[in-house]
Amino acid sequence: MVGLVQYFDGKKFMWDGVEYPDKSAASAKASEYSGSGFETKVMEHDGKHFVYTRRVAVVQAVPS
What we know:
20% helix; 4-stranded antiparallel beta sheet; 1 helix; 4 strands
């Protein structure tokens, strides 16, 4: 079983919770996440593929 959290290059990524049967399905989902502003990583483990995502929160100014 893969972990909920993985670190890649010192950055924390969260698993999206889905086991993909092949790399093309995982890559398609990763592309969808990327289009929404997420950084993504696809990882293979025991023949299954997993997508990990991260997005840096943007601090917004509070109107005064």
